[in-house]
Design a protein that fits this description.
The protein is α/β, with parallel strands linked by helices. It contains 15 helices and twelve strands. The strands form three sheets. Strands 2-1-3-4 form a four-stranded parallel beta sheet, sandwiched between helices. The longest helix has 19 residues, at 280-298. The structure holds 1,3-dihydroxyacetonephosphate and iron/sulfur cluster.
């Protein structure tokens, strides 16, 4: 029913719907593009529709707007924000830039437009290792997620890392003792983990990757059971793509992602709310590191 209503409104508004794997399954079912942050950033950069409805948290809608200043970008819920997106500050960035030579400020895409504007390049969880490896700089300030930063540090030798101490409250709440108890309950299962989890949780896992990489891994694995250490919204795609396989979620839901409901998507298209507005000077400063990510992340 929602799907029909949404289809009608989408035509009326010349809109495309992008949805992250963490939003409600019914919203994913109504979307034109569903994926991880990198895939959605690329889809946003390539659309020819005049309106983009971003079913995700604010930084995702902001990134779409930064890449499409001429298009209307709508968020179904204006209060859906990622708490980690604000866990770094301008003063620390300025201080380190002054104190540390040959420094690149690498900004996880899960960040406010203001933080992106202070950075040299953006990354997502699926391209962070590739992009940081390709940077000529010896020193890296990785903001805001320290867990993802540590995951990258372990895979990119020869560079010195600095952090702002940010974390995702949902992923960081998973403990290695949770993995142990899930493994005893499901001894045949493989553990699939997002790199926003703590280092000891990643070390206790069989595979660590972005949401899209987790889905691809489960699809090709010969195993039929998986313990999933990322936001449980991804189970919708896992179950769709892997019929017959079983998935046991460990991480809590992201309350902000769950604010996006089918009703809020319909309302958003009907009323044209909530439009992402960014001041052009700030958007231009944030566009540079995002475009650099799209360029470096797409290189063979
Ligand atoms: P992905 O880059 O895997 O989509 O992750 C986004 C996110 O918000 C993780 O918490
Ligand atoms: Fe932010 Fe964590 Fe929610 Fe992802 S899961 S949007 S990092 S709070």
């Amino acid at each position: 029913m929602f799907t029909e209503e949404i289809e009608k409104l989408k035509k009326r508004e010349d809109a495309v719907i992008l949805a992250h794997y963490y939003v409600d399954g019914a919203v994913q079912a109504a979307a034109d593009f569903v994926g991880d942050s990198f895939y959605l950033a690329k889809a946003a950069a390539q659309t020819d529709k005049s309106t983009i409805v971003f079913c995700g948290v604010r930084f995702m809608g902001e990134s779409a707007k930064i890449l499409n200043p001429q298009r209307r970008v709508l968020l179904p819920d204006a209060s859906a924000d990622c708490p980690m997106a604000h866990m770094a500050d301008a003063e620390q960035i300025a201080r380190l830039r002054a104190e540390v030579s040959d420094l690149a400020v690498v900004c996880y895409i899960n960040s406010s437009a203001a933080l992106k504007a202070l950075s040299d390049v953006c990354v997502t969880s699926s391209n962070a290792v590739k992009i940081v490896s390709s940077l000529p700089n010896k020193n890296i300030l990785f903001i805001p997620d320290e867990n993802l930063g540590n995951f990258v540090r372990a895979r990119v030798p020869g560079k010195t890392f600095y952090f702002s101490g940010g974390y995702c409250p949902a992923h960081a709440s998973v403990l290695s003792s949770d993995i142990e108890s899930e493994r005893s309950a499901h001894p045949a299962a493989e553990v699939l983990t997002h790199p926003e989890c703590r280092a000891d949780v990643c070390a206790a896992s069989d595979f660590v990757g972005s949401t899209a990489e987790i889905v691809a891994y489960a699809e090709q694995s010969s195993r039929s059971e998986f313990i999933v250490c990322t936001e449980p919204g991804v189970l919708y795609e896992l179950e769709r793509r892997c019929p017959g396989k079983r998935f046991y979620p460990v991480a809590p839901v992201c309350a902000d992602m769950k604010k996006i409901t089918p009703e809020s998507v319909v309302r958003c298209l009907e009323r044209g709310e909530y439009a992402v507005e960014l001041e052009e000077k700030a958007a231009a400063a944030a566009r540079r590191p995002l475009e650099r990510m799209l360029e470096l992340g797409s290189r063979k």
